[in-house]
Design brief:
Blueprint (H helix, E strand, L loop, with lengths): L20 H4 L4 E5 L2 E6 L1 H9 L8 E3 L7 E2 L25 E8 L2 H12 L3 E6 L2 E6 L3 H11 L5 E6 L4 E5 L3 H12 L4
Antiparallel strand pairs: 1-2, 1-3, 3-4, 5-7, 5-8, 6-7, 8-9
Length: 188
């Protein structure tokens, strides 16, 4: 049990007014994706991005102006957000999952997409820019890999058929909101 304050000692006064959170968690983090710099973000925002899969362990980040670019998994402040297995590699699903990837992309991006899928697991071409993927990686890791492989003009929809989840790459915010509302919406 914590001791009670000493009644003979005056209490320290806190200056009146709202607490400035920028003093506690300054926005200094930057994310580099799709050839652009995003941010600055606070450490709290970065942790939330990582936990929600918006940035993956391999996402390039910098902890301030002029700081070196490093993979997010190598930032000590974010390392706990990315689970690792005993070998030190990014955690994978314990059971393999089935995914469907549907892309709209330029001819120049086809090779990059195939290369990314090759690194994620076993896949089969199911039609023009439609692939079935069997992998142990997470949906967020697939999304991150495709974000790095595709240009900003390409789009992709990723369905985690094993876990009933949905993700996408390069959809405008309105389309993403609509996709999510249909996927999780009621039919009434």
């Amino acid at each position: 049990m914590a001791p009670l304050p000493n009644p003979t000692k005056p209490l320290r006064r806190v200056k009146p007014g709202p607490l400035d959170l920028a003093d506690v968690d300054p926005p200094r983090w930057r994310v580099f994706a799709k050839g652009r710099e995003h941010g600055p973000f606070t450490l709290g925002q970065m942790r939330a991005f990582a936990e929600k899969g918006r940035i993956g362990p391999g996402a390039l980040i910098a902890a301030g102006d002029g700081a070196a670019l490093i993979p997010a998994r190598d930032a000590p402040e974010l390392a706990a957000c990315f689970k690792r297995d005993a070998s030190g590699s990014d955690a994978a699903q314990s059971e393999p999952g089935n995914f469907v990837v549907v892309a709209q992309l330029s001819e120049a991006s086809e090779g990059a997409l195939i290369h990314a899928l090759n690194g994620l697991g076993r896949f089969a071409d199911a039609g023009r820019h439609t692939f079935v993927l069997r992998s142990r990686v997470t949906l967020a890791q697939i999304q991150t890999a495709l974000q790095h492989a595709l240009t900003s003009k390409d789009t992709a929809l990723i369905v985690d058929a094993s876990r009933d989840r949905l993700a996408w790459v390069n959809q405008d915010p309105g389309a993403g909101t609509h996709l999510r509302s249909v996927w999780a919406g009621k039919l009434d």
